[in-house]
Each structure stands twice: as C-alpha cells, then as structure tokens.
Design a protein that fits this description.
By secondary structure, this protein is of the alpha+beta class. 38% of the residues lie in helices and 19% in strands. It is built from seven helices and ten strands. The protein has two domains: 176 residues, 2-Layer Sandwich (Ribosomal Protein S8, Chain: A, domain 1), CATH 3.30.1370; 73 residues, 2-Layer Sandwich (Wheat Germ Agglutinin (Isolectin 2), domain 1).
C-alpha cells in the first residue's frame, strides 16, 4: 500500500498475478465504499487482469455500481491516432457494471475497434481479420493479422473506425492519462527499461448513499425494459444489451466446451512437453 484514505487506496502490485490483485482491489474498495458511498483505488505494476467485465460484475453483484480501466504502463502501443501511421496508445479498455433487480448490466469494451489479443488469436488460427480492424505500416487497410506483429508493424484502428475513430481515440487517450497518472504508473512513451504490466483504476459507488437503492434499481430496470421493447427491424429476433452476447457464449461453452484453434493447441502442447505435463 502506497497511499490510503477512507475513500482512496493506491497500491503497488509488485508484478503479482493480476487476477488475484484485481479481486483483492474489489474487496478492499467495497469495504471503503459502504460507509462513504464512493471509493477509488489504483494498482501499478500489476500482472494482466484479464476481462474487466469479471471485476466490475463482481462489484455489481455485491450491490455497487463500478467503473474500471487499465493501461499497459506506456510499453504496449498498438493504436494510432486518426490520420497517423505509428501506434501511440494501447487499447485502454473500459469496464462498467450496475446492479439491477436481476442480473447485473455489464459493459466491457476496448477503445480500439478490437482488442489486440483478438488479432493475435486470428494469427494463431491462420485466419484473416475482418475488414476495418487494421491498417498496415503504410496506413492502408489490411486483413492480415501478421501485419500487426511484423518488424514494421501495422496498427489497430480506434473505436469508430476510419470515419469516426476520433471518438474512440479520444476516450482511450483520456483513460490512459487517468490510469497512468493516478496509479503512479506510466503513459506512453515509457522508458525502454519499463515492463509492460497493467496499471489499474477502479471506482465503486453505493447507490444507497445517493438517491437510494430502490430508486437506482427501479430506474435501471425501467430503462432495460424500455430498450428491450424497441420495435425491431425485419429479421431481428431481439434487442440485445451489453453482456447478452457474452452470456450466450458462456452458456454455449458450459454445454459444449471451449473450442481451440490448431495454433493455440500446438502452443499448449509445446508448453506441456517442456514442463513435463501429460496431455489430456
């Protein structure tokens, strides 16, 4: 712990396992938030925390509204500004969740068109990327995932794509400053000696200390129902909300298992052999 007040904590993760540290951060902020109504915490030098949705959803299931973002300590740069050729920031994701009378409403998005890891997954699977994800080193649109990881790498487009990427890039830029600046970590460009860890920013709110929990849940439920009731275009089965697709995939994976592409399976087999672990 570097700094602590009744509503704030600032900690150094010391390159610990990110998914352990993120859970501890949620628990610590929940304890601070209940008596005060709001709490904010940061981590620097934190291992990869994984999906932000997991942590904001955890907070929402305990009755808190939550916001979370991370940067990559100024080391990983993969998103170019609109009109630019070289990457200047990372994907700088944003996670938001609110409790409802049912399941939490959860949003988890990168401020680029797509997460960098999804491009890597396409590369391992030997598949092209969809149009609109990437530009090559010369600024030309490309669907080749290898262009992102070449010696002269291309970049991800900001959220909003070629026409409206200023929106996603602006959001990613401001989140980078908030996360790096408040945590004590770095924004790009980091010193060459720095390691590409996560820096983390998280805020919790307790609605009971504001307009009241019953009002908050009532408004959340009302809005969700109102949006779901939107008249649909021909061929549209239902209006989807943030988290619907992930929940559908989760149910499918629980029933049918998690598919692995050949490239990922080969990597896992190689790691197992190196460590002397028998394959299933």
């Amino acid at each position: 712990m570097l700094t602590e007040t009744p509503a704030v904590l600032v900690a150094d993760g010391r390159r610990g396992f990110g998914q352990v540290l993120a859970r501890r951060l949620v628990v610590a902020l929940a304890e601070k938030c209940r008596p005060l109504g709001i709490a904010c915490g940061t981590l620097k030098n934190c291992g990869h925390v994984g999906r932000l949705a997991e942590w904001v959803e955890l907070a929402a299931r305990h009755g808190f509204a939550a916001m979370m973002s991370v940067n990559d300590n100024g080391v990983l740069k993969c998103v170019a500004p609109p009109g630019g050729l070289d990457a200047r920031i990372s994907t700088n994701p944003l996670g938001l969740a609110v409790p409802t009378s049912g399941e939490p409403l959860v949003l988890d998005l990168s401020t680029s068109v797509v997460a960098n890891g999804k491009v890597k997954a396409k590369l391992l699977a030997g598949e092209p990327c969809p149009s609109g994800w990437l530009q090559d080193a010369n600024g030309n649109p490309t669907t080749d995932p290898a262009s992102r990881f070449s010696e002269n790498p291309g970049t991800l487009l900001p959220l909003g794509g070629e026409a409206h990427g200023y929106k996603g890039f602006g959001l990613g830029l401001l989140l980078d400053v908030l996360v790096g600046g408040l945590s004590g970590g770095w924004c790009p460009p980091a010193d060459p000696s720095e390691t590409g860890t996560n820096n983390v920013l998280m805020v919790l709110w307790d609605s009971s200390r504001f307009a009241g929990t019953s009002h908050f849940l009532g408004e959340a439920d009302k809005l969700i129902d109102y949006v779901r009731s939107t008249p649909r275009k021909p061929g549209v089965d239902r209006i989807t909300l943030p988290g619907d697709r992930s929940e559908a995939i989760r149910r499918e994976r629980l029933a049918s298992g998690i598919p692995l592409d050949a490239g990922t399976w080969t990597m896992l087999c190689g790691a197992a052999k190196e460590l002397g672990v028998a394959l299933p």
